[in-house]
Amino acid sequence: MTDPVAFDVVSEGLAEVHRRLLPVTDGEVASYIPQLALADPDDFGIALVSMGGHRYEAGSSRTEFTIQSVSKPFVHALALAELGLDEMSRWVGNEPSGDAFNAISLEHGTGRPANPMINAGAIATTNLVPADSPAERSARILDALSAFAGRRLAVDEEVYRSEAATGDRNRALAYLMHAAGSLRTDPVEAAEVYFRQCSVLVNTVDLAVMGATLANGGVNPVTREQVVPEQVAVEVLSVMATCGMYDAAGDWLVRVGLPAKSGVSGGLTAASPARFGIACYSPPLDRTGSSVRGVVALRELSRRFGMHLMHHPAPGADTVTAAGAGARAASGRERAAADRELLAGAGDRVALVAARGEVDFPAAERLLHALAGAVPVVPGWVVVDLDQVTSVNPVAGLMLGRALDRIAASGHRVAVVGGSAVGAADDAWGGAAVRHARREEALAWAEEALLHELRSLPH
Ligand SMILES: NC(=O)CC[C@H](N)C(=O)O
């Protein structure tokens, strides 16, 4: 029997990066929260989770640590799912602050924190999660983080106490926001809920699953649970891309090109939309508060696996499989010599355009361009074969519908073949088109009508 591990080149890639970066000893383990100073600087874990829910890992990927600021995007997701983007944005901005994570980055006048990834914004966001008491709020947050991770998580009470004992700066931020009217709950309680959220224990694989859930439109790829709506995942990833790495966010986007979030315990998660969640854990931090090994590892992995968001994606399969008029659009029916002759003289009055696969905005643009080139110059018949189309997204359906309506309005008769996947787009073309089950039928329908017209013309 073949050992499936022998084919695991993904884990091999992770192991190679891990081996190469293990000797890196730059950075300092965070000590302003005393309990964090006890972390082992040699711990180094890497994990990658695919949209199929497959997990790949290297190093100390199962070592537990407190989530710290990596919790912020996930609690932001929970608050967004409850409040919606407009209401959220009234309380917390979406602008990169360019400041350190613990900066007093509050908007002049309103006291609104710049974004939900810095401490001030995170404390405000946490306390926007609807609940009747701080305990209930903490419980809801723990539930949400667990759903993102796909397993039941717990709070490290010692780290929580250590952070609460030394958390005056965060309390001060809460007081400032409370005074300015941007935090409505009690400042001390607000900070406590935030400290408990930061003290939730995770491992590197959990962080990768959490990132993968955002990359997968809010559906946890391991448990298949829809944790937050897809739109919320899109909004959270956007904020991660611009604010997730604090005052290093710009450089990060250039070099790694993925939405990400780091934390002071050394955790780091990144999301490659529709592809992977990737996470690292290594406690020594750079001056911006992100894991030194984590940052370099993500840089290498992004390059190695071609994950930079701004990369030109590989083109999909051709959408348009046939486009033309005349002979190429013939139905193949047996016909009398006289009819064949008639058709040969007027074959360019029947056009065929066929498409396949998923039709989204760019694919619809290609299809419409092909239609424009194939439509007869004099009133004729246009057969659009969508039998091999697997899906049409709403915007593409609208575009196609409008184009077919226009073609019909300019005097052509339109037939649409198959396209059971087209579904919603059906309403879009408002019955301007005749439906046929097969391409040959539609072409024969067009030819019969054309012949009928030609035969009645004086020779
Ligand atoms: N960047 C971080 O991870 C900060 C989280 C930490 N709990 C704090 O508030 O200071």
Automatic annotation (TrEMBL):
STAS domain span: 350-418
Protein name according to UniProt: Glutaminase
Recorded name of the encoding gene: glsA
Keyword Acetylation included in the entry's annotation: yes
One MF annotation (Gene Ontology) recorded for this entry: glutaminase activity
Record keywords: Acetylation, Hydrolase
SUBUNIT field: Homotetramer.
Pfam families noted in UniProt: Glutaminase
Domain of life per record: Bacteria
UniProt entry tagged with the keyword Amino-acid biosynthesis: no
Family in the record: Belongs to the glutaminase family.
Catalytic activity of the protein: L-glutamine + H2O = L-glutamate + NH4(+)
Residues reported to bind substrate: 69, 119, 163, 170, 194, 246, 264
Xref: NCBIfam families: Gln_ase (TIGR03814)
EC number in record: 3.5.1.2
Biological processes per GO annotation: glutamate biosynthetic process; L-glutamine catabolic process
